[in-house]
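hey so u asked for the seq, here:
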Amino acid sequence: MIIVDRKEGSTTGRLLAEQLTLADEDGIVNWTGRRNTESSALNAASYTDKLRQLEALEQGGVPCTPFRTDMPREEGWLPRRRLHHNGLDFRKRRKKFKPDYWTKFIELAQEWRLHVFKTAKGNYRIIRSGLKVAKDDDAHPWVRGHRQGWKISYVGGAPTPVKEASRAALDALGLDFGAVDIGVKRNGHPVVIEVNTCPGLDTGTLQIYIKQIKERFDAETRM
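ran it, structure tokens below
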């Protein structure tokens, strides 16, 4: 039986749990976004704190969004919260909004989402990649999330530099899987925006994760 440690209210976490509970393999999957005390769990080193995530990416030499913790004097820096999600700290500024850090605004030509999974042999496999495209004319010009009018088109593959950056991101963060959001600057260089450790998954991607999780635990049992 594979146990899925999940956040309350996570639809994807519930669906994973329902299907993996009946698996022949044994193991634990951390789908909470937080660190797990079980070192044997997949994604035990998950990150909820996005500032710590950026710090780890920078330390690992991964091209990521420029950030700073001191208040910038020049324009072009965006206030962020450590635990931000769905771009809410961009769209819903509270009256007493106190930034935890700032990220530099970068004009992107493209933004991709790559699902990456670490095999039992330690290789980072791109299991699905999609380009973010606007659903309508009212889509937010640069916050490219589902709630902001964007969708992911899983047609074709991401450019090689984007794939390499996504693998490097998981390696730097010590993760077993993740949905990596990567922008492509106008000069073609990739920049990692963030890594989602408990992403919402459509039906097709969910089945791919289930297959990869089973294969990972099965291979570890055989090793």
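The longest helix spans residues 203-222. Helices lie at 11-20, 50-59, 88-91, 160-173, 203-222.
lmk if thats what u needed
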